Amino acid sequence: SNSFRVQLYNETNGAIAGNVSYIVVENGTHTLSNGMLLQAGRVEGVNSYNADGAGGTSYQSITFWTAYGSAPVVVASPNNDSAQDWVATRYNTGTLTTTGIDISLEIDSTYGTAPIATSGVGTGETNSIAWIAINRTSATDMEAALEAAVDEDPATGDWRTLTFSNTYTTPLFFGLGEESGGTDSTTVGRQNLNETNVDIRRTEERTDGEQSHATEDTLWMIFESGLGNSPPTAPTNITCNDLDNCNISVDTSVELNASGSTDSDSDNITYFIEASLLNTTTSNDLELGEKQA
Q1: Distance of alpha carbon 241 from the chain centroid
Q2: How many Å apart are CA 261 and CA 264, to the nearest integer?
């Protein structure tokens, strides 16, 4: 698919506006230009949600493609719309290691106590979880860390300011909350994202009439927009039959050559050239030859 959708909390009644950070990563293992190991995957067939209780069998065990030298940072999101309702993700406290993590899908408490079967929610189909993991460090155009004991209390305006190690032009911020002391479903809320910092807190769903939540850890990562494998520049020189002018007449074949491209990632460059033929003439005249004995 080449698109995605954003699901608001039920209680917002559509009366909200804001920016959405997103990242698209091919399934598998990738080494970025800054040397960081980025891994991505998807868990299919998730058949239960977590809400209003310890997740239990709602947690999905994720194993990284390659082990990290130390525990990385992971973020995740629901990857389809079978619930047709607000769904978030959280990780089980104590499960993040160098080789994997346990993550559950969270839904609001009106559906009952976990585990809540997907068969009774929305279309009844199973769901999926998309995840990415990266080294817990700071590097060129990105950084990732764990922020301990993040609060959630809208009445007192409990926002935690994260100050970045780098300065960003167009920062993309992602977070994943822990489930440890607070059972109600939450997600990582943010405001005031700018070049050097962001404010975060745990944002609890409020179908039970309250939003007070225990302090819990939050995994987060930030990227400069456009980080990844950059395309090469366009060729500066294209020749046809060793001529700089490709506005030529061709009666049999033509040899095309391109040069002058550069690639900031030092990748090998392969050219794909399309040519249009103008004022072509096709002849259907055939001459019958003499049959030879």
Answers
A1: 45
A2: 10
